[in-house]
Amino acid sequence: MAYIVDIEHQKMQDNINQLVAELRSVYRSMLPGTDGSGSDGDQAQIEAMAFADDYIPGIPEKLSDITGISQEKLPFPVKLKAEESALLAKELELLLNHFNFYTIFPEKCPLEMRYFFIRSIWNNEYVSVAFGRSNIEFCEKDIDTCPFPEFCNDCEAKDSNVKASTSRRSEYDFDPGEMFG
Questions:
Q1: Contact 104, 137 (CB under 8 A)
Q2: pLDDT, mean of residues 7-17
Q3: 105 Cβ neighbours under 8 A, 6+ residues apart
Q4: What are phi and psi of 41, to 5 degrees?
């Protein structure tokens, strides 16, 4: 029985190594000076295009289509060891960065946990930008639905700021009709 488990694990390790090689191949082909879509053009032109990207909406596409890596190639998190999940999370984040997508996680969120979230949005649609930055957030900053309660306190901080703001606002509430009536 242990022999079967070792064979399955070796097969998974081989698949992960192949996937990592494919991910690296995609983002290396985009580096400036290669024949990919990377460019080492004029800085002013790059800044102008980044400005345009901020204001001209594109067509939403699945991350899997943008990157060329289908979700089926990404193993289910439950089949991976922690270090395998961490490796894939790091590689997927690098790949996304090369397409100007940046994942937003709490600073203390472990890499192996990040893989689960990144894989879960792989078929979601996003607007690709040639320059600039497109952030992908996984938290709505709602304390009741926060996916990272043990790793950050942003939801609690936001909740307490909202409560403080609401209490200050009530001190200055007035009826506009009183001013003009």
A1: yes
A2: 82
A3: 114, 117, 138, 148
A4: -75, -175
